[in-house]
Fold this protein.
Amino acid sequence: MVNTPENFIPVFPVPTEEEINHLEEELQNKLNSIQNKIANKIPHHEDTGILVSVFANTILRISTFLFQKTGYFGLQKVYYADEGCVGCGTCEKICLSNKINIINDKPVWNREIPCMYCFACISYCPQNAIQAKRMRTRKKGRYHHPQIIAKDISNQKSYALRDSLSIKH
Ligand code: SF4
Ligand code: SF4
């Protein structure tokens, strides 16, 4: 099991820079250890403890089912851009669902299109201007992988569209 920085922004707080550095250091050490075991064919068994096991096998499954059934309890309907939005269009370009359109220089989330809850729009807005109502996202930080830029995601979008077109034809 490896821990990565949390960026489920509407629900959880985003770690501080110091916490992120610590997590990334731990993560790198763990990955080095895994790489070493694979390279040397060393068997590995990790006992995550009874609490993690119960959480993963019951609570997580039930909550995932409920999230999918309810669309994260209507989360996709609560996004909005606040007064900090400068209409740059980044959110529209990186939404892999094509759910966001810039209209009159502001993003509009199409409620008819399902959200994938990737939070790329929130995490990559250069102005931190995307919020989710009632979830105190104004007070939370933002996190995305430091080596992945918005263009990397928008490039994936063109691949996704190309693949969906090739499936249809
Ligand atoms: S990415 Fe942020 S600043 Fe740019 S259009 Fe979207 S909400 Fe506005
Ligand atoms: S969370 Fe992801 S899928 Fe949902 S609107 Fe934002 S970018 Fe699009």
Q: What stands out?
A: The chain has a mean pLDDT of 86. The chain has five helices and four strands. The pocket of iron/sulfur cluster (ligand 1) is lined by residues 81, 85-91, 107, 125, 127, 129-130 (CB under 6 Å). Residues 50-74 form the longest helix (25 residues).
